[in-house]
């Protein structure tokens, strides 16, 4: 019996031992299987759940004016966040400093009370055992505000204690606000860019870097320190051809004239003749409140019937084909001419009668041009259009920035070709071109017949070094022969001296160009929609006429104050821009001769000695000071030198600020504890409290400048 019991016990123990052994082996086997078979996949899955590679945005390149001044740049702003579960941020530290932090935040942002900020922070710490990525304020702060925040209680502590985590967010800004806004372009929140920003987006945006980030509560990811982080590659700077000073002149001149004529919109382009570089481009549209803003790039993206500015292409065709000379004559009758069912009308009341070919174009006679074209090209319409095509007026310019609308120059046999297409096209109707396409054609006339492609960007730079340049591209070496060109330029000069643009004539420098006044068709409503006629006024030309340096076009759409002719509406804008260019172009001016007699020393104000000494040194003006060593001085011109005189400033006595400039006078009086108001400008000629009087702190003194 005892043996049977013993045997039974041993068997049971063995069974348990075997079971435990098998379970252990199964566990070990499963662990090995998980480790070596499923392990890589599970580790990758865990890694993906808790870690992720995040892109580090590079610094976007700047867009610069031709002289290097900023046009568009990225400015860093910061999200203000704090890790309320930072390892070193104990309850003792938090609750000891939170009142002071709340007070500082309330003073800085001013959107809620200190008590409200305290509750906000305390609740953020309590919620879900403390937020790891708590946003202190929804507004982005600039760098100066960030430095101020970093002096606040808690936030000024080391990161692992205070938990302050500012997150940089770059904002794109145009440094000159609305100047050339549509040409420079911009980038929206979705990353879609237009203008130069869009066309050179690949170069500007740079290459993103990578950093390892760890997932914390919710869907929040925060960067972690990693030696494997890839640094971003900053974007390339784009140097434009724009002259910001001339851009300012062009935009203001356009705005002023649009407002004066209550026009719908307008555009201006200023181009350098030889290179095709665009020095200024302005596009303004009237807003609902009557103001004007850059809302659309009309210069490159609005294709319209140009009107009389297109007549010069017709003139070149006539001259090139040998059909006319400038002395030939044509009868414009009473200014009205019926061709099929179409009346062609001149703007001159009663007509101009018999004119020479030169006068026809100088005075912009629609009847004269139409009659010439019908006489010489009727039945040979294809030769006229072929001649236009040979001048490249039918081809797009393929600009550096996107959005150009191709020109429309139809061909005989096309769907919309009619019996009146020939004379209508010759005077700028039934064709469609953009302002910049028209300017490029006229620029070729100014450039000896060579048509060049307009340039908006001249080089790319990286860290100040040029890595690519864009050279002038020739579209056609000659739009016509030299004899034709000389005659065309004579007529364009005559437009200003004797023709439709005589108001632009001046004795300082010569202008050549052509006015244009075209009726605008309003879709299916035609040219007289709802009984209302709308017009487009333009002027395109170049200057100086004898040696062209710049070409310019001005187009104003829908002037509505009963004045719509190109010479009156667009001409003054052209003239104002040309005057500014002429004024700043020193090579166009005769050097001033040195006067034979000596010039007296300039009158000098009294003030701070070191500043006055520096000015005299820079201007090579001799100084006599008789050994005085006071900080503040009076001055007196002595013919061929300036004399420094002692000026004594005594503490607690009202200082003598006579003959000083405003800056120095304010410095002395306010440092003495007085409140200052003033009138006039120039040097101080009077002070209401006499110098040497004892100062009463907070008393008011009035100074008069003249």
From TrEMBL:
Location, primary (coarse class): membrane
Aminoacyl-tRNA synthetase among keywords: no
UniProt entry tagged with the keyword 4Fe-4S: no
Source organism superkingdom: Bacteria
GO function terms (MF aspect): penicillin binding
SUPFAM superfamilies named among the record's database cross-references: beta-lactamase/transpeptidase-like (SSF56601), Penicillin binding protein dimerisation domain (SSF56519), Penicillin-binding protein 2x (pbp-2x), c-terminal domain (SSF54184)
Gene Ontology BP, a term: cell division
Transmembrane segments: 9-33
A GO-annotated cellular component: plasma membrane
Coiled coil region boundaries: none
Pfam families referenced in this protein's UniProt entry, alphabetically: PASTA, Transpeptidase
Residue span(s) of domain PASTA: 648-706
Record localization: Membrane
The entry's keywords: Cell cycle, Cell division, Membrane, Transmembrane, Transmembrane helix
Gene3D superfamilies noted in UniProt: 3.30.10.20, 3.30.450.330, DD-peptidase/beta-lactamase superfamily (3.40.710.10), Penicillin-binding protein 2a (Domain 2) (3.90.1310.10)
Database matches in PANTHER family: PEPTIDOGLYCAN D,D-TRANSPEPTIDASE, PEPTIDOGLYCAN D,D-TRANSPEPTIDASE FTSI
Listed name of the protein: Cell division protein FtsI (Penicillin-binding protein 3)
Organism: Williamwhitmania taraxaci
Organism phylogeny: Bacteria, Pseudomonadati, Bacteroidota, Bacteroidia, Bacteroidales
């Amino acid at each position: 019996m005892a043996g049977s019991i013993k045997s039974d016990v041993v068997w049971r123990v063995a069974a348990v031992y075997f079971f435990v052994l098998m379970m252990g082996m199964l566990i070990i086997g499963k662990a090995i299987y998980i480790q070596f078979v499923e392990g890589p996949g599970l580790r990758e899955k865990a890694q993906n759940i808790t870690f992720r590679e995040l892109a580090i945005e590079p610094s976007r390149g700047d867009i610069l004016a031709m002289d290097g001044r900023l046009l568009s740049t990225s400015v860093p702003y910061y999200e203000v966040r704090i890790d309320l579960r930072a390892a070193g941020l104990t309850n003792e530290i938090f609750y000891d400093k939170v009142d002071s932090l709340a007070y500082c935040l309330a003073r800085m942002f001013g959107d809620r009370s200190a008590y409200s900020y305290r509750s906000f922070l305390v609740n953020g710490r309590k919620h879900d055992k403390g937020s790891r990525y708590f946003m202190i304020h929804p507004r982005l702060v600039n760098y100066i505000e960030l430095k101020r925040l970093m002096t606040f209680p808690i936030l000024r502590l080391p990161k692992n204690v205070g938990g302050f985590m500012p997150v940089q967010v770059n904002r794109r800004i145009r440094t000159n606000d609305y100047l050339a806004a549509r040409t420079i372009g911009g980038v929206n929140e979705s990353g879609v860019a237009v203008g130069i920003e869009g066309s050179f987006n690949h170069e500007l945006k740079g290459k993103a870097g990578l950093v390892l980030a760890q997932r914390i509560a919710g869907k929040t990811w925060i960067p972690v320190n990693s030696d494997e982080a890839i640094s971003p590659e900053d974007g390339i700077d784009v140097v434009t051809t724009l002259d910001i000073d001339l851009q300012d002149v062009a935009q203001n001149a356009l705005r002023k004239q649009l407002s004066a004529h209550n026009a719908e919109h307008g555009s201006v382009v200023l181009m350098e003749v030889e290179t095709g570089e665009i020095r200024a481009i302005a596009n303004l549209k009237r807003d609902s409140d009557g103001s004007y803003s850059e809302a659309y790039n009309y210069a490159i993206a609005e294709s319209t019937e140009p009107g009389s500015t297109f007549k010069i292409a017709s003139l070149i065709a006539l001259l090139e084909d040998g059909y006319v000379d400038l002395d030939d004559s044509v009868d414009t009758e009473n200014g009205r001419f019926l061709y099929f069912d179409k009346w062609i009308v001149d703007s001159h009341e009663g007509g101009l009668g018999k004119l020479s070919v030169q006068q026809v174009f100088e005075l912009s006679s629609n009847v004269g041009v139409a009659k010439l074209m019908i006489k010489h090209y009727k039945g040979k319409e294809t030769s006229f259009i072929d001649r236009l095509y040979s001048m490249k007026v039918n081809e797009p310019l393929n600009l550096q920035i996107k959005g150009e609308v191709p020109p429309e120059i139809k061909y005989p046999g096309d769907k919309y070709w009619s019996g009146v297409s020939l004379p209508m096209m010759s005077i700028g109707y039934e064709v469609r071109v953009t302002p910049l396409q028209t300017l490029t054609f006229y620029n070729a006339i100014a450039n000896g017949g060579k048509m060049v492609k307009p340039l908006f960007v001249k080089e790319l730079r990286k860290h100040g070094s040029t890595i690519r340049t864009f050279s002038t591209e020739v579209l056609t070496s000659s739009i016509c022969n030299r004899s034709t060109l000389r005659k065309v330029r004579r007529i364009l000069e005559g437009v200003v001296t004797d023709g439709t643009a005589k108001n632009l004539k001046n004795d300082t420098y010569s202008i050549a160009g052509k006015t244009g006044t075209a009726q605008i068709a309003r879709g299916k409503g035609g040219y007289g929609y709802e009984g209302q006629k709308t017009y487009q006024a333009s002027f395109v030309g170049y200057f100086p006429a004898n040696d062209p340096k710049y070409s310019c076009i001005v187009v104003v759409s829908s002037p509505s104050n009963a004045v719509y002719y190109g010479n009156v509406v667009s001409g003054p804008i052209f003239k104002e821009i040309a005057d500014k260019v002429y004024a700043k172009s020193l090579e166009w001016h005769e050097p001033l001769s040195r006067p034979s007699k000596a010039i007296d020393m300039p009158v000098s104000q009294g003030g701070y000695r070191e500043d006055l000494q520096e000015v005299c040194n820079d201007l090579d003006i001799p100084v006599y000071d008789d050994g005085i060593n006071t900080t503040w001085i009076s001055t007196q011109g002595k013919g061929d030198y300036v004399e420094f005189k002692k000026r004594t400033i005594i503490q607690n006595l009202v200082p003598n600020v006579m003959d000083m400039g405003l800056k120095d006078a304010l410095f002395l009086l306010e440092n003495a504890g007085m409140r200052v108001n003033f009138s006039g400008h120039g040097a101080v000629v009077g002070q209401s409290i006499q110098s040497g009087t004892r100062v009463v702190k907070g008393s008011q003194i009035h100074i008069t400048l003249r």
